[in-house]
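Appendix B. One record, verbatim.
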Amino acid sequence: MASVSGQLEGLYMAHSRKDMNDTLTDALLSACAPDTAMPSRLVMEHVLLLSVLHHTVGVEVGAHFLEAVVRRFDAVYKNGGEGKECENLLTIVAHLYNFRVVQACLVFDVLKKLIGTFTEKDIELTLLMLKNVGFLLRRDDALSLKELIVEAQAKASEASGKFQDQTRVRFMLETMLALKNNDMRKIPGYDPEPVEKLRKLQRALVQSASSDTDTRLRISWDGILSAEQTGRWWIVGSAWSGAPMIDNSQQKVLEKQPSGTVSGKILELARKQRMNTDVRRNIFCTVMTSEDFLDAFEKLLK
């Protein structure tokens, strides 16, 4: 894992981040979200790799992948969710939470949506999510989990005559109560050990890169789906897709090379600091070569 993540970091340094994000996302989704059931361990390891790059390269890596997963799940779910693609995509979301790429609010959002519609497919997906992240949700936000359980109980009561077989509904409620009471024994097949082992590996791989910074994305499910209209505000430096905040002439000024001659040492330092776009390099070189903050401010305004 260390070797693969290191090679991918090198590719991120040498190529456009957009191209790398697109390629990585396509590769991971092809591997982890086909129409057939996927081994849980395989999905975990792929998401672990993504989470390492999210910490070492930048949060835009995880954000780009998350948006692709959410949009694809939304499209497949609305089309009826035949096959196992929905389950695979939801498992990816669960492990993005397990490996600290997203915060709990996103997981609660999708669970509330599933319980809100409360079909047989929704119950299966809810059980899948709770089996993967239920106890972590309890640890991170026990109050929201209790509210979710109350909502599920109310929905189950309303839909008592809706299903011919009530077994899955009862099992879902029993699973939720086991989570509420922190009783792992009542959840068949629950084994936290594989995730815990990979979390330890993750901590070892990102220890020097992340320090004490919380890189988890705090974004709602609907916020991701409406990103084209409202903008990707959770990504630093992301452009708003609505009315442009600067005109094209200003943009061209930003893309020009820094005024004056920049030494090779400064450009090499910019490369080491992952300044891999013209705008980033220009700002970095300007700040590094300015006499003081006033000089830097004036040069940046130009």
